[in-house]
């Protein structure tokens, strides 16, 4: 026997309220960013292609562009960013303590970091793996030829643990020479103190291009010994800010998939009838309202930094100084792993 209508009314009203969800409540971090009129972003102390400052103090790189995109989405101006250069040892404390709003500094997502630091991993912005650089004259072709050899590495990184694990698993007895700062580790390698230096393969390309007197004298071995999914992190406990950072990055990735570029944003805002494009650009359903932002949040981010593919090509791609292949960082429908959650 069915229940009287009066018993269903509360449920119907509750479902109706969910269907007409209001705009998101502003989180503590968003309030702080807006009140100071500036996003405080933690970055690498200097890793060309990802985050580095030029002689005038202007920052650029793939990680820097993630900061700029968030600032454009939230504050309407990608230049309203204060960059805080951080070492590997400093980065997590700076975020935990509230010194920075966002950590965008080639940081690997791992279970240990996810479960023990009080931080949230957002979206992978670069799929990488740990590699080794060696002098070309060594004629080495594989890391397994490093048996009983010295390898320079930076402490406080996943790189150090990966090297130890790889050495044990392959009975290589690698002699690690550990340095607190990356600059000291790379200087030791290029001065000949170690036969090899190890870090993320993208970092090796950056360092070779920046530090080596003659980059051609050094070879990055083709074998990678780990998975290094890199991306920005935020503090736990502020779901609204977590959502804003996460969906800004997803928006950049999905913009590439749907052909939205830095150059055609304005044109598509006025002409596109594609429902996905209209949602991303704020001319259809208002996605910004759900994040506590305005309807043009994503259009501003794309117009400022371009879509993910443009960011990649400009900073680290084949035509950049690093000349890194797109590889795993291609779109999912082109053989890569870049698969954005849908903006809908």
Short structural description:
With 344 residues, the chain is α/β, with parallel strands linked by helices. The protein contains 13 helices and 14 strands.
Structure report:
The chain has about 350 residues and is an alpha/beta fold. About 40% of the residues lie in helices and about 15% in strands. It is built from 13 helices and 14 strands. It has helices at about 5-20, 30-35, 60-75, 90-95, 110-115, 160-170, 180-190, 200-210, 240-255, 265-270, 275-280, 295-305, 310-315; strands spanning about 40-45, 50-55, 60, 80-85, 100-105, 120, 125-130, 130-135, 150-155, 175-180, 195-200, 220, 230, 235. It is globular and about 60 Å long.
- Radius of gyration (Å): 23 Å
Order of helices and strands: HHEEEHEHEHEEEEHEHEHEEEHHHHH
Taking pLDDT < 50 over at least 5 consecutive residues as the criterion, the unreliable ranges are: 1-23
Number of helices: 13
Our measurement of the CA-to-CA distance between the termini, rounded to an integer number of angstroms, reads: 40 Å
Total beta strands: 14
Overall mean pLDDT:
93
Shape: globular
Query: Beta fraction of the residues?
Result: 15-25%
The major β-sheet equals:
5 strands, mixed
The class by helix and strand makeup works out as alpha/beta
Strand order of the largest sheet: 10-9-11-8-12
Q: How helical, in percent, are the residues? A: 25-40%
């Amino acid at each position: 026997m069915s229940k009287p209508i009066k018993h269903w009314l509360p449920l119907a009203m509750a479902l109706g309220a969910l269907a007409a969800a209001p705009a998101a409540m502003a989180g503590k971090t968003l309030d702080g960013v807006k009140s100071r009129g500036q996003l405080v972003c933690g970055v690498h102390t200097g890793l060309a292609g990802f985050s580095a400052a030029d002689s005038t103090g202007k920052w650029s790189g793939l990680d820097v562009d993630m900061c700029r995109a968030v600032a454009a989405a939230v504050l309407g101006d990608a230049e309203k960013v204060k960059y805080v250069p951080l070492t590997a040892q400093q980065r997590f404390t700076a975020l935990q303590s509230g010194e920075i709003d966002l950590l965008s500094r080639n940081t690997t997502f791992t279970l240990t970091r996810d479960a023990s630091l009080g931080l949230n991993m957002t979206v992978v912005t670069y799929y990488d793996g740990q590699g080794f650089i060696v002098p070309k004259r060594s004629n080495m072709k594989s890391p397994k030829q490093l048996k009983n050899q010295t390898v320079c590495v930076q402490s406080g990184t996943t790189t150090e643990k990966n090297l130890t694990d790889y050495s044990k698993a392959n009975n290589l007895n690698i002699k690690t020479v550990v340095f607190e700062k990356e600059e000291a580790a790379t200087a030791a390698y290029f001065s000949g103190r170690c036969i090899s230096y190890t870090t993320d393969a993208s970092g090796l390309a950056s360092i070779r291009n920046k530090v080596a007197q003659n980059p051609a004298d050094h070879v990055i071995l083709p074998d990678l010994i780990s998975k290094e999914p890199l991306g920005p992190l935020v503090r736990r406990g502020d779901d609204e800010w977590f959502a804003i950072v996460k969906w800004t990055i997803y928006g950049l990735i999905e913009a590439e998939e749907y052909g939205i570029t830095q150059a055609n944003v304005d044109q598509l805002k006025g002409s596109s009838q594609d429902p996905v494009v209209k949602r991303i650009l704020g001319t259809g359903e208002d996605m910004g309202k759900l994040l506590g932002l305005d309807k043009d949040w994503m259009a501003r981010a794309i117009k400022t930094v371009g879509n993910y593919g443009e960011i990649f090509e400009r900073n680290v791609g084949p035509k950049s100084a690093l000349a890194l292949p797109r590889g795993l960082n291609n779109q999912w429908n082109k053989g890569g792993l870049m698969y954005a959650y849908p903006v809908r």
